[in-house]
RNA sequence: GCCCUCGUGGUGAAAUUGGUAGACACAAAGGACUUAAAAUCCUUGCCCUUUUGGGAGUGCCAGUUCGAGUCUGGCCGAGGGCACCA
């Protein structure tokens, strides 16, 4: 029998799909839509296994939904602005656009080889002018609505590369490229006012039923809503300062007040701008590392001012005012009221500077004489030593009561604070969307009028210079608007902006005039299922949610708030890591093993290789498997099958050569089965189909449930079971009246996973492959059941019975059966518990 | 430090949501076919027993229940997120 030649057959079907535009989608009001979207890739060169997994999962869903009769939108595009293009360009002296477009060509080809059901007519690329010109309009719209502003902000500044670094580009306080110690520098930057929507972004998370809880809690923590109040403290000691505002969540501990701590950037620092000691202190603060842990673990230090703050509940009490390194300027008001007994940071600070520690909350089971000694107590309890607040339950009741009193006395009021900060979108880079703003010679800025848009990126520029590349192109920077000359903004937009609305663009990708057509968006949006890595749980997903609200702000035509109805975060693809004698990483291709334990270098079989733990595939650790090689060697269907087989899609999966090979063999076996089935179906002699109908319907029931719940590893198991069933038939040459029909139902169910093979088999059977088979529930009902028999909770056997057997009859059958003699002979049935048609537990 | 998730054979994992633990696969061992190998197929899978059987068993310790991988409390371990957020 002929082997399955995946090369010619996969090519055949891919060509067929291309020529027939099988996956082309159009708006159709009469059909129910389904928008399936995977996070679009950055065109870095070649696709990796992570892409294979991501897009296979999405493709299984798309194809399943199409078969189920939905009008499915399944597009693909390129997140094609970004640093790697610029870096590659510098290294190879190549234009970022050429580099990017070449990569896109390669990767598109690779994706096509995977047999994905994508409507390629909707392909978009964020670095094309067609795309970013619309983004510039969004920017101006937001600018006009006051959702964009410019402010001075601290950034990570790399003094060697003369550029701003993102937090993740700072490694141990050094720039990831230059290795230079990163400085904190104040720069004027563009911001999106995302914090304006903080409250609704947080609250409306609750409506996202289709999102994993994990992602929702991550966003919740990120937004960080906290309830408390602001308090104005009266300050004495300098005539220029009479009040300092603080935010606190624990106003109820005000009687434990022992100092006031200010950020070094607090306006009060103006008083000390010429004080040498203060400047030294400030210098010391900026030196305590830039990594997050080092900041968190740094010793708490302070600088005592001449100021004193009054306790609003006790005018006689005054406390010292310090500058302290642990107070952040951009949260609250950059000032903290210190209550050492009930806040660990304040406690550490008070110990260091010998400040008063007064206990004002006691745990519920403690006496009133309870005193904080070794560490702060921040748990629940009762207020003590606090005059009119004493006896209240803390923190709940006591906080609300205290705020009420502060509001009456007009020294404070209720306030909700958020951790979320505005989104800085300025990047000092070339390869991004230009910001459509101009400056006059005085430095005041305005949006570029529509008729001068879009602002196009200049081509052929020299990137091998320090600093912002665009500002070095004098000709480009100058622009004349209505006869007046201006300078263009030379920063470009963060690439997260590009990906904050691309899913809208897919709805009308060819629209020249508008970013999208409203009717298209109304039909297709929201994305029904969004699929991608959990690493985007916060930023990308939050920014996209913000962007929808920003478009809809002061715009009654657009009321889409949540872009992604369903979200699925897939796990990573992992592989063992290999190191050679010189402690260098080695690719799996370079090593071999005879026994699965000892590994050696292929090129030198005496060179032992150290095997490390399995980790997510990465270029830096060289533990990658090239998808293209696998596709060429085993075929797309086999690779798709393997990537789904071993683990649930939300968990990490281990790459395994044996597993890959097994999947390949299974594809071969399915094809051979099909050939045998073809012959079997031709046979004259036929048997009654009841057994077959039962099997196929039970199978359909299982696989459909598992498909709907993303249990894709289990559907592979279901397919294996069905294979075994049909294999046995073909081996025993048992033909059924309905065999052709029911068998082709099985073939349709494997279509989402192995589309080429399924299409080919169905074609050879001369059967239609357009719709998912209907389930006939009648065959799910079994008239005979196997009931588990337990004595005292232990399984002792099973018994056959007809469905819906009465308890009395079942007991009678058990008593009559010799199997259970030894349990029933000398014992009486005391009691029993019966789970209908499934199990009986008899107590003796 | 705070928050979240997860602990099931040699391995990846299933388990109708409280009812037969280990489906399906990988690896291993044994067998069939073969001159042989590859491929393919079958069997086994922890402990006691030659078998029939029986026992233990889902990280550990308790609890609820006729019955717990599943529910509750405590502990141990792994992974992830946030991190001086007042």
Number of helices: 25
By DSSP, the count of extended strands is 38
Catalogue the unreliable spans.
none
Morphology call:
globular
Structural category: alpha+beta
What does this protein look like?
The strands form ten sheets. Strands 10, 11, 12, 13, 14, 15 and 19 form a seven-stranded mixed beta sheet that branches. Strands 29, 30, 31, 32, 33 and 34 form a six-stranded mixed beta sheet that branches. A four-stranded parallel beta sheet has the order 2-1-27-28, with helices on one face. Helix 20 runs parallel beside helix 22. The radius of gyration is 34 Å and the shape is globular. It starts with 5 loop residues before the first helix and ends with a strand. It has 844 residues and is α+β, with helices and mostly antiparallel strands. Helices cover 34% and strands 22% of the residues. Strand 37 and strand 38 form a beta hairpin. The chain binds one RNA strand of 86 nucleotides through helix 7, strand 11, helix 9, strand 15 and helix 10.
